[in-house]
Amino acid sequence: MDPKLSDIEHPATQQDPTTPYDRHPAGGWGSVEGIARVVATSQTSAVAARILAKLNKPGGVMCSSCAWAKPAGPARFEFCENGAKATMWELDRKRAGADFFAEHSLTSLRAWHDHDLERTGRLTEPLRYDAATDRYVPIGWEEAFALVGAELRAMDPQEAVFYASGHAGLEAAYLYALFARAMGHQNLPQSSNMCHETTSVNLKTYIGTPVGTCTLEDFDHCDAIFFFGQNTGSNSPRFLNILKKAVQRGCRVVTFNPVRERGLIEFKSPQNVKQMTIGAPTQISEKYYQLRPGGDISVLAGLMKCVLEAEDAAPGTVLDHAFISEHTEGFEQTVEAVRATTWAELEAHSGLTEAMIREAAQVYLTAKNVIGIYGMGMTQHVNGWLNLGMLCNFLMMRGNLGRLGAGVSPVRGHSNVQGQRTVGIGEKSAHMPADKLRALFGIEPPEQDGLNAVHACEALLEGKVRGVISLGGNLLRALPDIERMEAAWPRLRLSVQIATKLNRSHLVPAEVSLILPCLGRTDRDIQAGGEQVISMEDTFSHIYGSVGGAEPPSDSLRSELAIVAGLAKATLPQNPNFDWDGWCANYDRVRDLIAATFPKDFADFNARLMEPGGFYRGNPARERIWNTQSGKAQFTPPTMLSALGVIPDQPDVLTLITLRSNDQFNTTIYGYSDRLRGLKGSREVVLINRTQMARLGLSEGQKIDLVTAIEPETERRVSGFTVTAYDLPDGCIAGYYPELNPLVPLSYHEKHSKTPAYKGTPVRLVP
Ligand SMILES: Nc1nc2c(c(=O)[nH]1)N[C@H]1C(S)=C(S)[C@@H](COP(=O)(O)OP(=O)(O)OC[C@H]3O[C@@H](n4cnc5c(=O)[nH]c(N)nc54)[C@H](O)[C@@H]3O)O[C@H]1N2
Ligand SMILES: Nc1nc2c(c(=O)[nH]1)N[C@H]1C(S)=C(S)[C@@H](COP(=O)(O)OP(=O)(O)OC[C@H]3O[C@@H](n4cnc5c(=O)[nH]c(N)nc54)[C@H](O)[C@@H]3O)O[C@H]1N2
Ligand SMILES: [Mo]
């Protein structure tokens, strides 16, 4: 690999000119090779080709790899490298059946890497843990449901937790949320609690909506896009095509990210034969600033200072006074707090110079319509709430909210994470209207708030949780503090894992443990009423039907909806309003229930299900209707200048950010390459810049431990990580999720939403 930096010039701080970089742009041939590698191990290529050809298109499968939009006019191939990988990973030829589990004890499987566990292939039949042999053994579906039902009935409902990874469709999610409430609890943590919960809770208080205000259309009309902590090239690559188009029509892109993420630097579209063969890649970010983790508040304060200065110089021409006075509250206090900050402190917290921030501000000031994009780099911090508050402030100063071409746009992760929340997965009564539950089902839903992910973990550690059901996901890898969680897990009475593939969370048994294998999204779903469609909601609040196309890997799989219904039927008392079998037979009937429960969002759901581009459920903030307490959009004064909870003041304490590679989907590890960052071979690495490496007396390739530098009474340590030189700002290091999750304390989370601070944990490196 060429040890030189990419020859493209960037105004970013280039602390480390010897960083190994993949000189190839995002997209390009590398992504095609990545797809080919996964295709080689998947089902017969004819089936795969058929499914991929219709991926993200009306009548096809909606990709499970991210929540990006499925446009009404799709490209010839409306999928990316990761979408193809996720699809192929599910269309796996291999099977993890009863024979596999007869061969391997759980003790032996716990030594396997995440990658190797999922590589065993699709799960094929329901399994029950047998403690005497330390193995999973087959169990019939009816017996499994009866067993779980008896266990749940024997519990106080408050002792049960129903987790959902944001993957299952709206129909299964709705029944799951109904099941919990009919049982008498709202302990419905979801993957978003580790992800965009910062958005759900805080955007709601600022602008009255828990979701972003943009739609795809805005990207045709924006003049500038500001990126904060979202890695498009790895995590939502189809967005790159949209960005490319925007840049080519003159839209300017400015990025703030501690890591120089390839996809935001330049991009070759794998859709574009000419560009793939002879064309030059499109440069994406005109300006790329490697700020310090947690530095966004200071950057935004600096940008706001520049806007105020421009307004002072030409009063009445820069701020959108009409918008501010008619639509917002708190402007004066916020301006006062911004003016009170000094450039010296903003530079110290952001790691950028005043000149850099001034340069970025010029882009903002010359753009009429601006979109603010953000991801985990903003949400997974203790003061993530203020990150979002500052981004809204920045946009609102010039009225960049609720008008075409402008807005705030969180990029969601799991393909239906937002939709599951829309249909009732959530710990609060407000997530599923009680009056509707009374009217439709004659049940009295619980009033007491339930448990979100962090609360559920705390309760589990205290022994207050006795049963966990997981509708997808891999909690014992994805959570913070996973070693403490794993140690507590065997004290559970019941653990039920509804899954497609084997993962670590299946290997830590409770007294009663089951794996219930389900159909994946690519699988054809045939029920008594014929072939079924499921649906999901994207990051722009559009809702689509998804139709599986592959033969299921085994005859004994059930759909997620059928499994939820089976469990509910075996647990809940008879109720003539609960037609679990009828709902299973025809998912249209579940969509009718969703429409009846959430009429504003889902009127005529069945009729609109297959609309190309999805149907839009609307967003009041986009119409400048503010469902906040005050009825206005809220400015938020910067009461602190870093999003980090602990700002390291000892020289040996560094801020750890945990990253994803393009060769993983969360805890699913496809392989050991991080092509876009020019890294491969191992995930047990700690990335650090050469200056810091020298300062700490470390050398490249050295093996070290990492130890968390807060709550010293509980040691959190990982061992045997390889020191690797990488272009990062001073004072921070990076490594991979989930390998580094033992280091993140459960207590270290965003203030209002409890989203774990996975991007800002203080650690020490111990040789
Ligand atoms: N291939 C692939 N696609 C995925 C996923 C996957 O694992 N693999 N996961 C899916 C899911 S569930 C989600 S939520 C999304 C996640 O997608 P993203 O929101 O992009 O999340 P991350 O990759 O965790 O981190 C985003 C970026 O934040 C930067 N960052 C870290 N700290 C800071 C900071 O303090 N400030 C700023 N400005 N930037 C910072 C990191 O360098 C990184 O580039 O992707 C989804 N798509
Ligand atoms: N350190 C650190 N930790 C993090 C993050 C981070 O950035 N840093 N990110 C956080 C984020 S953003 C998220 S969203 C969470 C993710 O946390 P989770 O959603 O809990 O984890 P996943 O890795 O997405 O779950 C993978 C498993 O889902 C199952 N699965 C796959 N497809 C299906 C299906 O169709 N149906 C069912 N029932 N099961 C299926 C498979 O068994 C697979 O092993 O992790 C969080 N954890
Ligand atoms: Mo996520």
From TrEMBL:
<keyword id="KW-0560">Oxidoreductase</keyword>
<dbReference type="GO" id="GO:0051539">
    <property type="term" value="F:4 iron, 4 sulfur cluster binding"/>
</dbReference>
<dbReference type="InterPro" id="IPR050123">
    <property type="entry name" value="Prok_molybdopt-oxidoreductase"/>
</dbReference>
<dbReference type="InterPro" id="IPR009010">
    <property type="entry name" value="Asp_de-COase-like_dom_sf"/>
</dbReference>
<dbReference type="InterPro" id="IPR006656">
    <property type="entry name" value="Mopterin_OxRdtase"/>
</dbReference>
<keyword id="KW-0411">Iron-sulfur</keyword>
<dbReference type="InterPro" id="IPR010046">
    <property type="entry name" value="Mopterin_OxRdtse_a_bac"/>
</dbReference>
<keyword id="KW-0004">4Fe-4S</keyword>
<dbReference type="GO" id="GO:0016020">
    <property type="term" value="C:membrane"/>
</dbReference>
<feature type="compositionally biased region" description="Basic and acidic residues">
    <location>
        <begin position="1"/>
        <end position="10"/>
    </location>
</feature>
<keyword id="KW-0479">Metal-binding</keyword>
<keyword id="KW-0500">Molybdenum</keyword>
<protein>
    <submittedName>
        <fullName>Formate dehydrogenase H</fullName>
        <ecNumber>1.1.99.33</ecNumber>
    </submittedName>
</protein>
<dbReference type="GO" id="GO:0008863">
    <property type="term" value="F:formate dehydrogenase (NAD+) activity"/>
</dbReference>
<comment type="similarity">
    <text>Belongs to the prokaryotic molybdopterin-containing oxidoreductase family.</text>
</comment>
<dbReference type="InterPro" id="IPR037951">
    <property type="entry name" value="MopB_CT_YdeP"/>
</dbReference>
<dbReference type="InterPro" id="IPR041953">
    <property type="entry name" value="YdeP_MopB"/>
</dbReference>
<feature type="region of interest" description="Disordered">
    <location>
        <begin position="1"/>
        <end position="27"/>
    </location>
</feature>
<keyword id="KW-0408">Iron</keyword>
<dbReference type="Pfam" id="PF00384">
    <property type="entry name" value="Molybdopterin"/>
</dbReference>
<dbReference type="GO" id="GO:0030151">
    <property type="term" value="F:molybdenum ion binding"/>
</dbReference>
<feature type="domain" description="Molybdopterin oxidoreductase">
    <location>
        <begin position="122"/>
        <end position="495"/>
    </location>
</feature>
